[in-house]
Each structure stands twice: as structure tokens, then as C-alpha cells.
Design goal:
Strand order of the largest sheet: 1-2-4-3-5-6-8-9-7
Number of domains: 1
Order of helices and strands: HHEEEHEHEHEHEHHHHHHEHEHH
Number of strands: 9
Shape: globular
CATH superfamily: Alpha/Beta hydrolase fold, catalytic domain
Length: 422
């Protein structure tokens, strides 16, 4: 097989803006081409990414990775996709894994997890895909509209969910996948469950990483703004601690921490919740600062991803800046799916018992998502005759547990992927 052409070297990520002038220059340089380059900087760390296979035949590696924009049937609709495929596919391979990011995030967030999942794909002769939701990441930023009236909660929820899960189904059809194991983070976890409820024959397993919208939360113990203000645990990504079953004691400990971190109901929070109900998004607020936006994003990147290396943090900042400052689209779903306080308008705990597949809930021990929802969902699934549900706590990690403690999350994901059905 012919060797692949030598790719042009990628320019290093720029420094994170700390002054108005550097923020202005960074804002001016934000565009679709820059977004693609920023994403590729993250994927170039993978030795099996196609740009790193120069001089080698594809069969020299158990897997090969490539990225593309997968066009859907609707005009101008496409989903940004990273495909990691086995070079020796097995006839008895398990269904492929599909990684789905959270609210306003993108598939680049999963870069610390891709090597471990690629090893699984090579060992099992299967595939792994990371896919940006429609209207987020580097997927098509098409208009997001809801026709249902504000009082029609089920209608609003149904339309908002369908915007995403129907495009995922169109992607699955285009990719000719019979079944998939979905691994979703935060809103991606919520939408993974919604997809499985609507297309049950297409899902093999669900692995839900700090999923949003699971419990009923009348006391509003969580806060939606923490999607962009969340801090990492002190130990960062260097942790060697693993995951453990979500016992009542551990769940209670997390509740105590969440209650202590609950933001006060001051004017700023009241304004945020008003804007939430009116259909604004946190990212729209950031974009509205214009030239200051890269510096605001830089402060978040430097704080939230402090466990990464300096170069990785710059790469993540560049990536986050580009996808955050892109045209608003799917992000406007949030007020239709989640009420202020980040609890679902139609909680998954009341709907999940219809699933007949293995479901795994995973939370960080410093998470701001409520693990009690996962525990109650496991119980509801068991009462409905599904004994294939589990719930875990990952130590030394917060909401972005797959970044905070990637080794523990990777080990748990691989264990759950290979766990045979009872």
C-alpha cells in the first residue's frame, strides 16, 4: 500500500490572551479554518491519526483514525466526525462506540480518552467514533427553532430532543451502522438516553458520564452556569485513584459538597435565570462581549484545565475559543430541555425504565450533577426487570471527569464495554 503524503506542519497554538490587545487579535482570527486547525492539534497527539502514519502502510497499526464532515440528507446539515477503525475488522466484533460530548463542547474534549478506546477497537476488531452534535462543536450551525408554545413542556422537550437525536439517527444511517454503544457526557448523556428511548433497536449499551437531566431537583441543588464556571478538583489529571460503586455514603458526601457550593440567589443569579428562561445561553453571553471574549474564555481554560500540560492547555483554549465563538445554534436547546437549576423539564429518572439494555452511570466525586438520580434510575431499571444497570463514582474528578481522571474513566469504560450481559 502506498505511503500517505507528508502533511503540512501545524502552527503551534497561540498564547492564551491576557490583555485586551491579544484578545482582540485572537477574536479577529477566529474562523472555520482556524477551528479545524485547533481540533487537529488535539488529534495529532494520536499516533494512529492519519497525519501521523507517514511512510507506513495502514496495516502497520491495529487502528487508523481520520476526521471528516459527514453530510446528512438535509441540505447544509453535517456532523463533524472522528473515526477510529480497526485495520483488521473482526466478524464477531462488538458494536462500535460513539462518543458524544456535552453542552456547547466538542469531540476534542475527549482527546485523553481516545488512545485507550482505540486499543479496545484494535483488540476487538471494532470501531470508535467521536461525533459533534448538530449545532455544536464543528458540526453544521443550522438554525434552531421550536414551534411549541412555552406552556407546552412536552412539546418543547420533544422538539429540542429531536433536533439532535434525529440527526444522530441520520448519521448512523449514513455510516451504515446497525447498532452502537453510546458514551455521552453531560447533555450528551441525556441525549443518548433520549436517542435510546426513541430508537431502542439501534443501541447496544449506554455509558453516561455525569449525565444531565436525570433526577428531579425541586431544591435546585445544581446550577446551570457551572457548565462554564466549573473548577477542577485539586488533584487534577494526575490522579491514580480509580472508580468505585456509588454507595449511599458516597452519594451523601457529594450532596454535602454540592449544598456548600450552591450559589446564592443574588441579582446576578436572578438575571442569569431570567435570561435562561428567555432562551439565552451562557455562550451567547460570552459572545456578546465581542473583543473581550477570547480573554474570558482564556480565564476559563487556564482554570478548568490546569491539570493538563501548558501546551495541552493552549491547544484546548484555542479549540474552545473557536467552537464557542462560532454561530449560535444547538446551544439554544438548553432552556427547552432543562429548567433553571439544571434539572430536566422531563427528568430521565421517570422515563429510563423503558430501556432493556445495559446502562452505566458515572459521576465525579466532586461533581455538580446529582448522582442520586443515577442511583434512582438504576433502581427503577431493576424494578422493571433490567438488572444490567450500574452506577459508579470516579475519585478526584469533577463534572469533566474524563479529563480530570482519565485513567480511571478509561479503565471503567473499557471494563463496561467488555462486560458480558447477564
Amino acid at each position: 500500500m502506498a505511503a500517505m503524503a507528508t502533511p503540512s506542519p501545524l502552527p503551534p497554538a497561540p498564547e492564551i490572551p491576557t490583555t485586551f490587545s491579544t484578545s482582540l487579535r485572537s477574536w479577529w482570527a477566529t474562523n472555520d479554518k482556524g477551528s479545524a486547525v485547533a481540533e487537529r492539534r488535539l488529534f495529532h497527539r494520536l499516533p494512529f491519526f492519519r497525519a501521523e502514519t507517514v511512510g507506513k502502510g495502514l496495516n502497520d497499526s491495529p487502528v487508523v483514525a481520520s476526521s471528516s464532515l459527514v453530510m446528512l440528507d438535509k441540505p447544509k446539515h453535517f456532523l463533524n466526525t472522528l473515526a477510529i477503525t480497526s485495520t483488521k475488522p473482526a466478524s464477531d466484533a462488538p458494536p462500535p462506540v460513539v462518543l458524544l460530548p456535552g453542552y456547547g463542547a466538542g469531540i476534542g474534549f475527549f482527546f485523553p480518552n481516545l488512545s485507550a478506546l482505540a486499543q479496545w477497537a484494535g483488540r476487538r476488531g471494532s470501531s470508535v467514533y467521536a461525533v459533534d452534535w448538530l449545532g455544536m462543536g464543528r458540526s453544521a450551525r443550522v438554525p434552531f427553532t421550536i414551534k411549541s408554545q412555552k406552556k407546552d413542556i412536552p412539546g418543547r422537550v420533544r422538539e429540542a430532543e429531536s433536533f439532535f437525536i434525529d440527526s444522530l439517527e441520520a448519521w448512523r444511517t449514513k455510516m451504515q451502522l446497525e447498532k452502537m454503544t453510546l458514551i455521552g457526557h453531560s447533555l450528551g448523556g441525556y441525549l443518548s438516553v433520549a436517542y435510546a428511548l426513541k430508537y431502542p433497536d439501534r443501541v447496544n449499551k449506554l455509558i453516561l458520564l455525569s449525565p444531565a437531566g436525570v433526577p428531579r431537583d425541586p431544591n435546585q441543588t445544581t446550577a446551570p452556569e457551572r457548565e462554564i464556571t466549573d473548577n477542577p478538583p485539586d488533584s487534577g489529571a494526575s490522579s491514580t485513584k480509580s472508580a468505585e460503586p456509588a454507595t449511599k455514603r458516597r452519594v451523601d458526601e457529594i450532596h454535602v459538597e454540592q449544598a456548600a457550593a450552591k450559589p446564592p440567589r443574588n441579582r446576578t443569579r436572578q438575571l442569569f435565570m431570567y435570561l435562561w428562561e428567555e432562551g439565552w445561553s451562557p455562550f451567547q453571553v460570552v459572545r456578546s462581549t465581542y473583543f473581550w471574549a477570547p480573554m474570558i474564555i482564556g480565564k476559563y481554560s487556564s482554570r478548568r484545565f490546569s491539570g493538563l500540560t501548558e501546551e495541552e492547555t493552549r491547544n484546548m483554549h484555542s479549540y474552545i475559543q473557536h467552537i464557542t465563538l462560532s454561530k449560535g445554534s444547538g446551544e439554544y436547546c438548553i432552556s427547552h430541555i432543562l429548567a433553571p437549576g439544571a434539572h430536566a423539564r422531563m427528568p430521565l429518572v421517570d422515563r429510563i425504565a423503558a430501556l432493556k439494555i445495559p446502562v452505566t452511570f458515572v459521576y465525579g466525586d466532586h461533581d455538580w450533577m446529582d448522582p442520586e438520580g443515577g442511583e434512582q434510575s438504576v433502581e427503577n431499571l431493576r424494578k422493571a426487570g433490567n438488572g444490567e444497570a450500574r452506577s459508579y463514582i470516579v475519585n478526584d474528578s469533577g463534572h469533566h471527569l474524563y479529563l480530570d481522571n482519565p485513567k480511571a474513566v478509561n479503565d471503567l469504560m473499557l471494563r463496561e464495554l467488555d462486560r458480558p450481559a447477564v
